[in-house]
Amino acid sequence: MADTSSETFTLVITGAPYSSQAPQTALGFARAATDAGHRIARVFLYGDGVHLASALCTPPSDETHWPKEWASFLEHHGIPGIACIASALRRGLVNEAERKRYALPGSNLLHPFEIAGLGEWVEGRRTSARTLYFHAGG
After folding, report:
1. Recorded GO terms, molecular function (predicted)?
2. How far apart are CA 86 and CA 93, in angstroms?
3. C or N terminus of the chain, fewer CB within 10 Å?
4. What is the C-alpha to C-alpha distance for residues 93 and 81, in angstroms, rounded to an integer?
């Protein structure tokens, strides 16, 4: 008989949405896991993975808009989506607080993503049964 107990996962995405399959593969896993009754505690974006949280991404109309797909999934399931602050700032991704701090002309963080430190990754590892990494590969 199959084990039907649920598990809690933290997902870490390090690959950018249009130069790797990491965000797509992670979303496929996340959908399958939640459909099977498992819980995603948080999604942590690190390195180039923070591009997934950009509100300025505009793919051609015949391509999947991965940032919007992820934002919709996170909102629907009430899952925190966290972009590493160091990775985000290095790549020009800022929320309103960082925009003000650095006197930048605008912010570009896609809702419901948040910017936070590595403590969020540590907390995810501590409280989840498993932490899965989705890398760019190569």
Report:
1. transferase activity
2. 10
3. N
4. 14
Q: Is residue 5 part of a domain?
A: no
In a domain, 27, yes or no: yes
For the cut 80, the answer to whether the pLDDT of residue 41 exceeds it is: yes
Nearest alpha carbon to residue 6 among 29, 35, 27, 43: 35
- Mean pLDDT, rounded, for 37-66: 97
The better pLDDT of the pair 22, 123 is held by 22
Q: What is the extent of the structural domain holding 122?
A: 20-134
Beta bridge pairs of residue 104: none
Does the annotation mark 84 as catalytic? yes
Average pLDDT, the chain: 94
The single residue of 30, 53, 82, 84 carrying the catalytic annotation is 84
